[in-house]
C-alpha cells in the first residue's frame, strides 16, 4: 500500500471511530484489512453497523481468505490430483 493511501485510510479510520471504543476501531481495521485480501478492495461502509456485525463480517472475510489460501496451496501441489482418486492415486 502506498504511503499516501495508508495515510488516507488511517485518517478515515480515525474519523470512523472517533469517540468509539478500541474494540470497534480494531474490528473496523480487521474487517477492512481482510476485505482487501479477500476481494481486492476495502469495505468501508461501517456507518449504522454494530461492532458485533463488523466483527462478524470481518470473520467472514478472514474465512474467505483462508479458503483462497487453501485453494492456492492445492493448485500449487503437483500431487493434489491424488486426493480425487478412489485409490488415493497409487500407480
Descriptive account of the structure:
- By secondary structure, the protein is mostly helical.
- The protein has one domain.
- The protein is built from 3 helices and no strands.
- The chain is elongated and about 60 Å long.
- The chain starts with a helix and ends in a 16-residue tail after the last helix.
- The model has no long low-confidence stretch (mean pLDDT 83).
In brief:
Helix content is 64%, strand content 0%. The chain has helices at 3-17, 22-39, 51-75.
Search tags:
91 residues; mainly alpha; 3 helices; elongated
Unreliable runs, pLDDT <50, ≥5 residues?
none
Please tell me what the overall shape is: elongated
Bin the strand percentage: under 5%
Number of strands: 0
Report Rg.
19 Å
Distance between the termini: 47 Å
In helices, the fraction of residues equals 55-70%
H/I helix tally: 3
The major β-sheet equals: none
Structural class of the secondary elements?
mainly alpha
Element-by-element helix/strand order: HHH
Tally of individual domains: 1
How confident overall, as mean pLDDT?
83
Amino acid at each position: 500500500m502506498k504511503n499516501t493511501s495508508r495515510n488516507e485510510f488511517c485518517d478515515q479510520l480515525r474519523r470512523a471511530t472517533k469517540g468509539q471504543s478500541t474494540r470497534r476501531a480494531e474490528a473496523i481495521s480487521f474487517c477492512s484489512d481482510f476485505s482487501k485480501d479477500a476481494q481486492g478492495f476495502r469495505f468501508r461502509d461501517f456507518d449504522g453497523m454494530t461492532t458485533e456485525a463488523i466483527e462478524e463480517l470481518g470473520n467472514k472475510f478472514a474465512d474467505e481468505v483462508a479458503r483462497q489460501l487453501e485453494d492456492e496451496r492445492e493448485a500449487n501441489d503437483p500431487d493434489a490430483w491424488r486426493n480425487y482418486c478412489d485409490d488415493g492415486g497409487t500407480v
